[in-house]
Design a protein that fits this description.
By secondary structure, the chain is mainly alpha-helical. It folds into 2 domains: 132 residues, no CATH class; 131 residues, no CATH class. It has a two-stranded antiparallel ribbon. Helix 1 runs parallel beside helix 10 and helix 4 crosses helix 6. The longest helix is centred in the C-terminal third of the chain and has 38 residues. It is elongated.
Length: 277
């Protein structure tokens, strides 16, 4: 058996490794896998935040293509907005959204891995495949426009923001699945070598509950910071990506609290009872 101080240190390290392991496993399965990313964000193609943002981007491009002075007329602007809204709520949009996000994810991973974009290029969603549909919708509104040279892209995040996150990304990518494995092994070692195993279970459960609770708070704060840097569609993508991570952290927190409650109940049950007679 090992000294109690060493057990306490192991408990502390385990409590720190558990949320970090959850995050690194999430990053390995979600952020580093294009197919998993696309599968996660595909359902939000019909999300109001996504369709509104994409429609606004199409409207800007279409109005620029219409040109002055027509694009300053209120009725033309209304017709363009209606046509753009129909384009992003039509049956073609989900497939365009899916493939555009596949390209987006690859570009983001390249940036996070150390690449740089050419000057003036941004991380964006390309809606060019919707050009024909948008032209057709505008024609129904009586607006004739050539969108062949229009910029039908919507910027999602500034490259500078991704470059600032590069170090954290590379650390998570290196950790991968090794970190949760280390956390599990260390928990087993801690419990196997503890002098007071039952007490150590309670200490470990309580410490893990605290770190997981703090992690959930940190995730909420991170979400607020991310939404400040991206558009509404980017915020919807973030919410979709971290939904699984948040659920895993909550499940871990509940499990830790249950383990702590069981430890307390068992401890109370083991107390010697005094009999009066």
């Amino acid at each position: 058996m090992i000294p109690r101080l060493v057990t306490w240190l192991l408990v502390l390290v385990c409590a720190l490794l558990v949320p970090l392991g959850i995050v690194s496993a999430w990053a390995a399965t979600m952020l580093d896998d294009t197919d998993a990313y696309v599968e996660t964000v595909e359902p939000i193609a019909t999300d109001n935040a996504v369709t509104t943002t994409m429609a606004a981007g199409l409207s800007r491009a279409a109005l620029q293509a219409v040109g002055a002075p027509l694009n300053t007329r209120a009725e033309i602007q209304a017709q363009v907005r209606q046509a753009a809204a129909r384009a992003v709520t039509g049956p073609e949009f989900p497939a365009v959204w899916r493939e555009a996000n596949r390209v987006l994810h690859r570009e983001v991973v390249k940036l996070l891995s150390g690449d740089t974009l050419p000057p003036g290029q941004t991380v964006q969603i390309d809606l060019a495949p919707l050009a024909a549909q948008l032209t057709g919708e505008l024609a129904k509104q009586g607006v004739t426009v050539d969108l062949s040279a229009a910029d039908l892209t919507v910027q999602m995040v500034a490259p500078k923001e991704l470059e600032q996150a590069r170090t954290a990304w590379q650390l998570l990518e290196t950790a991968g699945y090794w970190l949760p494995i280390m956390a599990f092994v260390l928990i087993v070692i801690t419990l196997a070598t503890a002098r007071r195993r039952l007490a150590t279970v309670g200490q470990l459960a309580g410490a893990v509950a605290v770190t997981l609770g703090v992690s959930l708070i940190a995730l909420s704060v991170a979400g607020s910071l991310v939404r400040d840097e991206v558009n509404d569609a980017g915020g919807a993508i973030w919410d979709a990506l971290v939904a699984g991570l948040r659920s895993t952290l909550i499940i871990g927190l509940v499990a830790a609290l249950v383990a702590l409650a069981v430890r307390i109940a068992v401890g109370l049950g083991m107390r010697p009872r005094t009999h009066q007679g």
